[in-house]
């Protein structure tokens, strides 16, 4: 819809702007309305097309008018802006506005045109025609967009945009998964999760869901183990002079699980972390020894927690026998949750052993080193089936190590494991259904995203004043 024409459809431009804005005072040269006209849609050629266009956009445009008025007043910001927002204020405001537009709810008789456009835009190098069913189509340079997204993941709004594009635009998702430099995108996401203590929960959720979406793709799960990284300076638990992107991803996700177990205890976070690990498990390749150790260490932590809850339940039951008036804590629910997580970890280990045992001697070494951990779960009714393969692998390699004699070096043990992998008949490992989890938005995602987006506008918009006393959409501690 061109803004330079004196007529739009069957109406003079100034009359159309008055109708669209809902006010008599709008100027034909108003920058906001002209900008909307210039980038939103192709010009309607008839009054029928004009009416359809108005139904889809009129409420959206009116709601933006107030926002634009505040922008142009140059009021004092609600909060001190971050350095990145101050250095590129127009880019920051534009991104926030885009997120507001994309998250507007659909009208009763028309979908959100901005969301439709975000869901369907294509690469400038893609010459294939748009389907006639896509009314709001445009093209953009995907390489430039990818590079910008890689550079800007320190901000909530850039991570939310990345999530939106990956989740809703299959063209973007396909393009990104085909890149040979995925580490440029994945590393900033991992750094968000690594510094979970410093991030707000929404930013952590978005980063984690991005990983989950990426791990739905088997090609991604294979390729990340082929990318070797050197000297990851922000990872402080241990010096990692060289590690694959896949092993680093496992380390960071496991660290997030452990942090969540001891601090936030958020089941949603647990579930998505485990789902990402499960999606990757069949393609685990050449796991770094530290990554293999952390997998088993997490299982050890879960095992201790399981035993502690069992002990607490037993003591509580004994105490209740002498005092029937004291209500019992719901240990059964706690036990059920921890057993679900333990089973998932066993399934992840089993999936790796079943599909890529020969690629992961370090995991076998870690299992053998801590084999006593698994003893109590061999006959447990909740884990008996999934323990078969793990028990078989531990028994098989323990026997070979016993035959090799005592006082074996680490190098010698790994050599025996690599030789044993060839000798272990693959048909002795029981096949289980492939572990695959897919991210699905909640039934009413707007209940999460609309308050989140507006909290970002409140906290990040440069030069925009919002009275905190009047805010009802989100709590003031949601930054």
- Termini separation (Å)? 37 Å
Indicate the radius of gyration in whole angstroms: 28 Å
Overall pLDDT, averaged? 82
Strand order of the largest sheet: 1-2
State the share of residues found in helices, binned by percent.
55-70%
Number of helices: 20
Q: What share of the residues does DSSP label as strand, in percent?
A: under 5%
Number of strands: 6
Task: Note down, in words, how this protein is organized.
This protein has 479 residues and is an all-alpha fold. It folds into two domains: 88-179 and 442-478, no CATH class; 180-316 and 329-441. 59% of the residues lie in helices and 3% in strands. The protein is built from 20 helices and six strands. A two-stranded antiparallel ribbon has the order 1-2. Strands 3-4 form a two-stranded parallel ribbon. The protein has a two-stranded antiparallel ribbon with strand order 5-6. A hairpin with a 2-residue loop joins strand 1 (7-8) and strand 2 (11-12). Helix 10 (183-194) packs antiparallel against helix 11 (201-214) and helix 10 (183-194) runs parallel beside helix 13 (245-262). The longest helix has 34 residues, at 289-322. The chain is globular. The protein starts with 6 loop residues before the first strand and ends in a 19-residue tail after the last helix. Residues 35-46 and 48-80 have low confidence and may be disordered. This is Dymeclin. Belongs to the dymeclin family.
